[in-house]
Amino acid sequence: MIENKYKHKVKTAAELAELLGDPPRRRKIVMCHGTFDLVHPGHIRHLIYARSKGAKLVVGVTADEHVKKADHRPFVPDGLRAMNLAALETVDFVTIDPNATPIENILTIKPDYFVKGYEYQRGGLHPRTAEEKDAVESYGGEVIFTPGDIVYSSSAIIETGPPDLAVEKLMNLLEGEKRSFADLKAALQAVKGVKVHVVGDTIVDSLTVTSMIGASGKTPTLSVRYEGRRDYVGGAGIVAKHLEAAGADVTFTTVLGKDDLAEFVREDIGRSGIHLNAIVDETRPTINKNAIVAGGYRMLKIDTLDNRGISEQIAKKIVRGIKNTAVDAVVFSDFRHGIFNGESIPMLSAAIPDAVFKVADSQVASRWGNILDFRGFDLITPNEKEARFSLGDQDTVIRPLGTRLYEEARCKVLILKLGSRGSMTFREGGGELRTFFGLDSFADHVVDAVGSGDALLAYATLALKATGDEVVASVLGAMAAAVECEIDGNIPVTPDMVLKKIETYERRAGFQE
User: Fold this and answer.
1) pLDDT in tens for each of the 513 residues of the chain?
2) Nearest CA-CA partner of 397 in 421, 374, 379, 429
3) DSSP codes joined into one string, 234-283
4) Which CATH superfamily is domain 2-163 in?
5) CA-to-CA distance for 496 and 474, rounded, in angstroms?
6) Do 251 and 241 touch, CB atoms closer than 8 A?
7) Are strands 222-235 and 202-215 parallel, antiparallel or unpaired?
């Protein structure tokens, strides 16, 4: 790989201290430090100036966990930021700083000159800059400020039009975690035959197609011509269908009414080869969400549902189903339409056998619910809005927000869905194992993003259960979500579809057409 040509320039602070020796030195060592989220012309001018002051230039890069100055940052992970700098001729060495400030690295490397941008001295020294200056001067070094010039902002560039770095970030992750595209393909095979029990609310999504006739001149009443209606199994039902399409052996427990839509669900699920455990509640309808479309625009949505919590009798039937169905994993697909509530969740969670892999997804965009109701699960997959709702926090930037949710949920793995910005995975860290990592969206042409989270949930669940690998599970889930985004309608994603997407990115990673 091209990146291997520059790897020798990326060192730890301890390695650099041994390599460069202690001052006084005949050949001066210069050091800079920053985030360098996107290397722009201002950075280049700063680095060229710094390099002119000595024989060697060392650049410290802030580690991902300490980048908190803007939302969804860093945009570029630290390994890739370090490689971007290492590829520059003017830079001799790069070190990823695991500390919140550069002071410890300064005292370890002991550069002769520590170079800061001129903006850091305007209006007097910031207390943090003063601390850095004290550290440099403690061994006889000197702080230099670059001359005044145009100040560029990585944040402004990223927010104006973020570049597409999905391939580069993926390669950086796979290489850093010692994974490969072969591992992704192998996982697609490994998920086949995993036994999964999905428990959740079935929603029949309907599309009533019309054409505009006109509007009343006296009242705000639109007149449309009926042209047809299409029904689809959604909610927890489509999660079950994604899992089955991926090759899992699926049991689906849900609550249906006693009506025609319930029969539609039975027939549709039956054709999919899923084992359906439908519990009938004659007091409520089968959930239906009917979108009225005119001229390609959704004019109105009519929901037929009853969000009352299920009765204790029905909850006990679901509990028996969970206890008596031998599976490898249980997925709670919570749309807050009755099955999951304050009383039923503890009962249903307690029914899962200890050795079974536990997954929860709580989609509460317009209803009351909380992903933290599923504490202690192996995998949870909320989106940003659901994460903020669960913590009552609309202000914290994404990475610290996800870390806090991960800690409070006490789960093993958290995949935080970020829509068009991709996803971020949180896990137990330690040693060289990073505690979080991000992936950009792999969707090339978004046609319909509805259902992408369901596809991610299905493939991430199966891959994590089959391989125990958070990286592989996160990538496969993201690939499946991208495939779903490129399809019109919530259609089950097959392994062949995901394989095609993997191979596309494998070609791009190899700079092939």
Assistant:
1) 545 677 889 999 999 999 999 998 889 999 999 888 777 677 788 888 889 899 999 999 988 888 776 666 677 888 888 888 888 888 999 999 988 899 999 999 999 999 887 666 655 667 788 888 899 899 999 988 887 554 555 555 445 545 567 888 898 889 889 999 999 999 999 999 999 999 999 999 999 999 988 877 778 888 889 999 999 999 999 999 999 999 999 999 999 999 999 999 999 999 999 999 999 999 999 999 999 999 878 889 999 999 899 999 999 999 999 999 999 999 999 998 999 998 999 999 999 999 999 999 987 655 567 899 999 999 999 999 999 989 999 888 888 899 999 999 999 999 999 998 899 999 998 777 789 899 999 998 888 888 899 999 999 999 999 999 999 999 999 999 999 999 877 789 999 999 999 999 998 887 544
2) 421
3) EEHHHHHHHHHHHT-EEEEEEEE-SSHHHHHHHHHHHHTT-EEEEEE-TT
4) HUPs (3.40.50.620)
5) 18
6) no
7) antiparallel
What are the structural domain ranges in the chain?
2-163, 176-190+382-513
- Please tell me whether residue 314 adopts helix, strand or coil conformation: helix
pTM value is: 0.77
Q: Which fold has domain 176-190+382-513?
A: UDP-N-acetylmuramoyl-L-alanine:D-glutamate ligase (3.40.1190)
User: Per the structure block, which two tokens stand in for 343?
Assistant: 């009383």
- Residues sharing a CB contact under 8 Å with residue 512, sequence separation 6 or more, in sequence order: none
Burial of 161 (0-12, 13-18, 19+ CB in 10 A): exposed
Which residues are within 8 A (CB) of 94 and not within 5 positions of it... i.e. 6 or more apart?
9, 10, 11, 58, 59, 60, 61, 82, 85, 86
Contact 340, 348 (CB under 8 A): yes
CA–CA–CA angle 380, 384, 385 (5° rounding): 110
CA separation for the pair 208, 291 (Å, rounded):
6
